[in-house]
Amino acid sequence: xxxxxxxxxxxxxxxxxxxxxxNPVFNxxxxxxxxxxxxxxxxxxxxxxxxxxxxxxxxxxxLVPNHLNVIxxxxxxxxxxxxxxxxxxxxAEGVTLEFKGFTDFKDIPHRQKYIHPVDVFKKYKTNCExxxxxxxxxxxxxxxxxxxxxxxxxx
Length: 155
What we know:
α3 packs across α4 (about 65-85) and α5 (about 125-140) crosses α6. The radius of gyration is 18 Å and the shape is globular. It is mainly α. The chain has helices at about 1-10, 15-20, 40-55, 65-85, 125-140, 140-150. About 50% of the residues lie in helices and about 0% in strands.
């Protein structure tokens, strides 16, 4: 992802340039579940994201859309935490590119407590249907609110 971005973007934040100079391995945090109380850090992170987007907006169409969130949400977050020496506590350790367990709907709620279809898993119709089913089962008010909003906006 970085190489593709480096070939296209005119502006790359300093923390990303530092990371690439020091680390040949591409590291990132999966931002499916992100939070904390370091408001200054999150404000700085948001500013960096918007600066990266704004200064390269005219070049975005040259990148694969699926990779944009990896750059903005995940890689930039990782680089900024490294630059500012911030401790990050991950919800799940040892996550691989296969994202094992993150779409195991059959194991909810007994063995699996967290579901997060990522990347290509969001494109599988079965996963979307299972996610809708769980949302309706566990959070019916939100489910019907979403349906009403979709209908209101004709989506």
